[in-house]
Amino acid sequence: MGAPGNVIELDLGLAADARAVLVRALRAAVPAIVAEAVTEIQREVPEYAGPECAHTLELAAGCALAGFIDMIDAPGPPSEDLLALFRRLGAAEAQEGHAAASSLNAVNAGSRVAVRHFARVAEDLGADAPAALYGQVISGVFPYLNWLMVATAQGRAEAARDPAGLLRRRRRALLDALLAGTAPEPRRIAALAHEAEWPAPRRAAAVALAPGDPGRRWTPPPEILDGSHLDEPCLIVPDPREPANRRVLDTALHGRAAAVGPPVELTGLARSLRWARQALDLAGRGVLPGAAPGDEPVMAADHAPTLVVLDHRELVEHSARRRLRPLLAVRPNRRHQYAQTLQAVLECGFNASAAAARLHVHPQTVRLRLRKLDELFGDAIHDPALHVELLMALRLWTATAERGAQPDWFASGAGTGGNRSSR
Questions:
Q1: Looking at the domain assignment, is residue 153 inside a domain?
Q2: What 8-state DSSP symbol labels residue 215?
Q3: Do 47 and 179 reside in the same domain of the chain?
Q4: Torsion over CA of 136, 137, 142 and 143, rounded to 10 degrees?
Q5: Where is the PucR C-terminal helix-turn-helix domain (predicted)?
Q6: Same domain, 177 and 123
């Protein structure tokens, strides 16, 4: 790539020892300069506010400072690696919809911070620095920044030559903002949605996809944000409770195993995705139906009790160890059967036939197990006031048991009460 015409090489005419002292002092100041520059940029340029921009600002400021100090240490033009980095940053700026004026304002704010720190470094060096040193360093800052801004503009131009790629990257930037750990600013989301040509719905849902190749290449319709490129692939879709949106979702899934989070306002999509991924994990482990390709997607809202129990697992474990303690009287390899049976009979109102159909066993098997459960638990399982607590405990058991064994938390924390062994 071409470079600016006013090539600058920072040769300050210092002896090797004096240059080494200056370089050490400047390098030591870099962390403080970067931290203050990021704060100042985010205060002055609202477009860069928020934690999602802080990492990029830190990278740009840190690399720019390091490159400038390298030029003092070994006079010469900026390195090609540094210019390539700023071309990539310029392309990313364009792809994320940041205006060129915002980039310039950020550079101006950051450079003012750097100049203040350079003045302090020169002052601290005192007699070790020539009188004209500060002026020489500052006179090199702005031509140096011109190098970096030209590289940034080149990156923007490259991105503009690929409009389809630019739109794709803008939609990915929007998806990242919607799924960030902190709730995104509605105004920022509206701006990103406009840049990404996404018809933002009032409510939407996140969809967790089973990892792996979906088996086809596809172009998502405008209303779907595609996150299938992520390590944990996902989609964002308009409220799938509306029939037209559900048809679009079914077409997009194309038989792929998936779980759909509850529809929420756009600022809550990170939570919707967390619930969807939790439901997909449970389906993959056989706790919930719908793990196989071709199955209907798991609707997380249909399994709210299980997801709520897992969200408050520590408290529910404490209750479950106490309420399910009678199962210690059953041989370990039979406890899971009895836990499943107790859950089924509670959910089926003690109807043995309905519980048997749910468990895929004979009704007489359920009746025999229920007599044993009556013996173990006594009146507790017939006390309506305890049913909710028992069902919470049993849902946690079912969600955390592996391959039909009792959960680890029960074995480690239930104590040693109950010394009988049952068939």
A1: yes
A2: S
A3: no
A4: 70
A5: 339-396
A6: no
**Between helices 51-73 and 100-125, what is the axis angle to 10°?**
50
The CA distance from 129 to 67, in Å, is 21
Domain assignment present for 179: yes
Q: Spell out a b/e string for 287-296, using b for 16 or more CB atoms within 10 Å of the CB, else e.
A: bbebbeeeee
Burial class (CB in 10 A: 0-12, 13-18, 19+), 358: middle
Contact 414, 405 (CB under 8 A): no
In a domain, 5, yes or no: no
- Which two tokens mark 121? 């470094």
Per-residue model confidence (pLDDT) at position 367: 95
Identity of residue 164: A
Bridge partners of 234, per DSSP, are 208, 227
End residue of a domain, out of 302, 335, 359: 302
What is the bridge-based pairing of β-strands 258-260 and 298-299?
Answer: parallel
Ranges of residues in the chain with a pLDDT under 50 are 1-7, 416-423
User: CA torsion 148→150→155→159, rounded to 10°?
Assistant: 150
Structural domain of 186: 169-302
3-state secondary structure of 15: coil
Q: List 260's β-bridge partners, or say none.
A: 207, 299
Q: Please name the helix (run of DSSP H) or strand (run of DSSP E) that holds residue 372, with its range, or none.
A: helix 363-377
374 lies in the same domain as 271: no
For the chain, give me the number of helices (H) and strands (E)? 16, 6
Same domain, 377 and 403: yes
Contact 302, 224 (CB under 8 A): no
Domain match, 238 and 194 both: yes
Task: Quote the pLDDT of residue 412.
Answer: 60
Q: Which of 288, 262, 264, 265 is nearest to 275 (CA)?
A: 262
Residues 6+ apart with CB under 8 A from 293: 210, 255, 256, 257
Q: What is the pTM of this model?
A: 0.56
Distance CA 65, CA 21 (A): 17
pLDDT at 312: 85
Domain count along the chain = 3
How do residues 40-60 score in pLDDT, each as one tens digit?
Answer: 999 998 888 877 688 889 999
**How confident is the model at residue 126, as a pLDDT?**
67
